[in-house]
Amino acid sequence: MTGSGRESERNTSIGLWQGYVRLVPYDPEWPKLFEQEKARICKSLGEPAADVQHVGSTAVPGIDAKPIVDMAMAVDDPNDAESTIRPSLEALGWELRHEAVLTGNRLFFVKGQPRTHHLHVVERDSDVWTDMLLFRNFLLEHPDVAAKYCSFKKDLAKEFATNREAYTRGKGPFIESAIAVARGEKSIQNLASDIPRPTL
After folding, report:
1. For residue 189, what are the contacts with CB-CB under 8 A and spacing of at least 6?
2. Is the pLDDT of residue 178 over 50?
3. pTM for this prediction
């Protein structure tokens, strides 16, 4: 990536080169960009795209985030759905990333160069789908937890600015702890007690 490319990236509301980590202040345009892309997907796919959600940090006002709009779509079976949704999504500029398909029976699509959107196609009745929404809603309902998460991410971003995979792994313990609190499995007072802080 050239210096001019990085400068161009900083002048847009969304967009981040693959592998890099950069957090920016919350932008109220992000929900609008989500709604615009959701409308395109729903128009193209129809019924399979009935439940498309804005997830991740760009869905939580007030916290810094990577400038990539994270989206999730619920389907009965992602593997069965691939043959029907993939051609339509590719026509909209989405690319299926086979090497990035994660556990939990889901497909992962990316869009833009630099990356502007991520789309997780997730089994509707899975823990993955439930936890995505549970974590987002928990942050929305608890601004103090969202602020802690933001601080935690900033530390990770400093350490792993050129290692997106390590940054993503580093967020895992906080997310898992917050989901446990949201499920009632631990006290909110103990939210961060078992989370190792990143070493800078």
Report:
1. none
2. yes
3. 0.87
